[in-house]
Amino acid sequence: MRLDKWLWAVRLYKTRALAADACRLGKISFEGNVAKASKEVKVGDKYEINLNQLHKIVEVKEVLSNRVSAKMVENYMIDLTPQEEYERIELTRKFAFEKRDRGVGRPTKKERRDIDLFKE
User: CA 50 to CA 11: how far, in whole Å?
Assistant: First the structure.
């Protein structure tokens, strides 16, 4: 099975075209090298996938022929991503949201610059 089809089948990407684009853009690597969409997937292969800010590591548990439901994904893939990575993403989501008091209005230019500086 092709890598892009497997990534789509285990629901790492919403469409096969998105999976192929990720391969083409170098967001998926195998043993330190960029993986092509046409690479044959084998049991035991470990892939490093960059999904937006998340750096995910997955191992192929079983090769499948069709897309599976979300509940069955664990039968075909082992997630080796460290827990610290998920915690880092959760922390960035938590602090990416600004809360403004009701009735204060929109931020001024100076306040916007301060907010942007704080986020960086």
Answer: 14
Residues 69, 72, 77, 81: is their CA dihedral positive or negative? positive
Distance, in Å, from the CA atom of 107 to the CA atom of 41, rounded to the nearest integer, reads 51
The length of the chain in residues reads 120
**Residue-level pLDDT at 103:** 85
User: Mean of the pLDDT values across residues 31-42?
Assistant: 94
Ramachandran angles phi, psi of 81, nearest 5°: -65, 130
Q: Output the pTM of the full model.
A: 0.76
Contact between 28 and 4 under an 8 Å Cβ cutoff? The reply is no
Give the DSSP letter of residue 113. H
Q: What is the set of domains in the chain, with CATH numbers?
A: 3-119 (3.10.290.10)
